[in-house]
Design brief:
The complex is a heterotrimer. Chain B is an alpha/beta fold. Chain B is built from 14 helices and 11 strands. Chain C is mainly α. The chains are: A alpha/beta, B alpha/beta, C mainly alpha.
Amino acid sequence: MEIENIVDVENLMLRFYTYEGIVEALDGVNLHIKPNEILGVVGETGCGKSVTSLAILGIVMPPGRIENGKIIINVNGKQIDILKLHEEAIRKIRGKDISMVFQEPRAYLNPVYTVFDQISEVLIEHRKQEFINRALQTLKNQPKKSTITNFYISIYEKWSKNPNSLLIRFLSKIPILRRFQNPFKKELRKEVVQLLKSLGMADPERVADSYPHELSGGMAQRVVIAMALACNPTLLICDEPTTNLDVTVQAQILELIRALRAKFKSSILYITHDLGVIAELCERVAVMYAGNVVELAPVIELFKNPLHPYTRALLESIPRPGQPFKSIPGIVPSLINPPKGCRFNERCNYAMDICYKIKPKFIKVKEDHFVACHLYGE
Amino acid sequence: MPSIRGVNMSEKILHIKSLKKYYPVLGGVFRRKIAEVKAVDNVSLEIRRGECFGVVGESGCGKTTLAKTTIRILEPTEGHIYFNVDEEIISKIEKLEQNLMSERDKKTKSTIEAELRKLYHQYDVAKFKGSKLHRLRREMQIVYQDPTTSLNPRMLVKDIVGEPLLIHRVVEKKKIPEKVLQILKKVGLGEQHLYRYPHEFSGGQRQRIAIARALVLQPKFVVLDEPTSSVDVSVRAQLLELFQTLQKDMNLTYMFITHDLNVVECISNRVAVMYLGKIVELAETGKIFSEPLHPYTRALTESAPIPDPTRKKMRAPLKGEVPSPINPPAGCRFHPRCPLAIDICRSKEPILMDAGNNHFVACHLMTKSTK
Amino acid sequence: MFSLRERIQKWKKAHEASIKELKFILFRIRKSPLSLLGTFIIAFYIIIAILAPILAPPQPSWDIFKNPNPFIIPDAYNSVDPTPPSPQHPFGITVEGYDIYYGCIWGTITAFRVGVMVVALSLIIGLAVGIIAGYYGGLVDEILMRLTDIIICFPGLILAMAFVVALPPALTLDAPTILIPITVVIALITLLQFLKRTSKRRAIIYLAITLVLAVVSALILLGIVPKINVVQTPLTRLDKVLIALILVGWPGYARVIRGEVLRARSEDYVEAAKAIGASDSRIIFKHIVPNTIYPILILASLDIGSIVLTAAALSFLGIGAEPSYADWGQLVQKCEPYMLGVDIVRYWYIWLIPGAFIFIFGLGWNLLGDAIRDVLDPTLRRR
């Protein structure tokens, strides 16, 4: 029985319409992520890795426009094409089934809200019913029920039947009456502290009450990861989360991601330009260049047997002590008027005539090893 | 290990003695000093002519502050820096300092002090002012980490690279474009790049412009502050190659600051590891990576991910985070995170000592400096 | 030697990047209809201003004293009542017999003069104060900023009115008046030198100059050395308005540029310039100013419109230009006796036509300023 892929990106084309011209950011990207695996995406600046993740989340802003392609996600047994969904439907998926961790944690945390406020925002958005029920249960389990408790129970029962009822929302704005939310908030707090603890924080209570600027880089990144995992997503996208962190903190976070994957059973799409991290963390790797996925293979296979010339050049350019430095000649082509055929043709040592005319197809060369190169075509 | 050919082992171009850079923390109603950020705390080292001296450490360890204080972008709080000074004069100063410590007679003390002051005024970079400082800029330069912010976005490339020549009036105005073109060619750019703005270039090219600006005055000592951290992996190799070529061509001495151990292993001759403002280990590159002595160096080398999936790490990462430099831990600054800490580490600060073969460590366990 | 064509080509290549920028700016302006409208309005006014002598020729025969100043509206019609527009007087005549058409046309030049001069001079003063305060910081910053705070505390229009009334009828620059400000400035620079601790020699030289100047000023004040009148120029009422508006306007710019300078001061390229050994003035003029001045220029262009409005308000209150001067606000002032009655509708041409001129002028500058800001924003984002 074939295991369904969690995410299937087929032939994704994305363009940015700017004053300088049309930027062909993604030119037929093909990816697939299996359940419960860590897929690494490696590539240089401008290759389109961040934009691909934004497309999967459905937050491509104008002047960017998706021209073509399919992004099929497999959540709760259903297969949905993200590109065909409208905003409301995607919003339900974002944060719950797919969530994202960004590069600069403090830029993505709102500086005027505490950590608790921000994590509970995610929880309220997607798991409200659950917490209402939990609060109701706690209230009912109280041995001695005062009048207030009974009053709360009646409110919560109403609320549980209709989480978005106007009456409740109205009540939550009135100064003294809105204290009925306290049991609800207590449940939220319990969950947040639990989440922070599972992320290895030494003092979760204190962290929950701090503001983002009081946290160090590593802790802020952990908070963002907590926000991303709050609703137990099927897919977690990490866009260079450890690039700005110290190397010892990076080691901690990588260890954390591994542990969380085992616990939550999510798949992880890990974007980075650091080949060391890829080798350490990922199980399969996709190599991107100038808007295309040029190679996709399991990590050991990729490092041992790189097929695409770009992958080979990338691996060779890693500085090794005692050996002269090998770099890739030339620079990344401009995506406004991209070269015809294979976009790597200018810099490739093995370029043939056909590489300048026809774009290579993304084909399977070996078991689970895909390449887009004319050397392995026909 | 990079060859040390061309490095004159005995000739030293830079001596840093007991350098301190403290930032006052103002607080209270009257904004008085309530604490100090000890960014660089009593650092001493020597750099040999023609070598590439690496300084590694994580954020907050003070490596950038050390570099900027050395070339006098920042003013040192205490300490001495001797650049391009003869060994004899330095030993003379050292002897006078020692005499000053041991002398009791007030009169002799004041004469020694007067002589020391004269020597400091003449040779100590930390005390340079005015025109002396201005001339020093010709000899010591810096390349910043992020070329996007270190180049004036509204200046043309030819003006950016030509500005140092204009300021120091090394050549006549007419000859400036020629010199600018010369140095641009050396870093791999060409005439077509003269009349462009920095934002029209890629990251690697911008860094080359910054390098050209630093080298146009033909300095002797260049600080490279994480020059490859903001560029892509494939460009990194290009830049490292460029650094090596330029070093040979123009007889430069580098202080290479980075947090990327991979890079420092490939390009530097000797490495100093810093933690919270102090040097914890200093040795030749090969030795630091093959037998790291200090627990922090070991943690660093082990945490760095290796681009080889068959060698997955099994060791547990280092716990905790770098503490704030305002209130560093007592005793050895690393002891709260050190897996091998013993009692004395909590009370007494270890001194950087030679553990054999010019391999310096600041650790009680390694040097047995206690007892 | 290069031929003309070669020279042009060389210039083009040298400024290739700036030309590209300009083309982009023009493209963005073309795209937005409002900014196009603003540009057209201002262009329209500029054309009127240039063609003023042709559109409303001053005729010396009107004035028996052959007043050569074209800005004085000819008062040749002794009609007491205002006359509505007619073919000879397209916009009508006001109560004392001033031709509104003439006033509006020549008033355009006055408006530009007031707007541009006030903004330019207050910009210069504001920039100087703001840049010095922002760059040097510390005590200098505190002193200068408190000075600007004092002026900002007062409501602008009221303070301008106070200045207009308080300014002397003639500007006399005699020895103490020049010496004392110069002494103060040199004293401040001396203070700066001491605080920066550059070199003792320089500081002592400045201190010596300060002392000499202070002594001379004291002698003059005490009457020992006679006062020498250096310059004496009469100030027209319009000049007083200009000076008042300048004195009230510069603190705004000083504050804004100081904020920008503080931001730019901590940028890497400024530190890099210090590392190369650039002097303070070089850093300020070549590095900080080009990178901070754009928002200020936008503010300034928006201000031209509002300055003209303020000047018109002052004229309407009666403390602006002289009664016969060609100024829009002055013309509106003429219908002041009819303000609270039904005559205001009857004599609509007195206030509506100059008022429309004022309104559209302000609108044009506002749109243009908005347009420039919109254009420069994405460029900055691009960078």
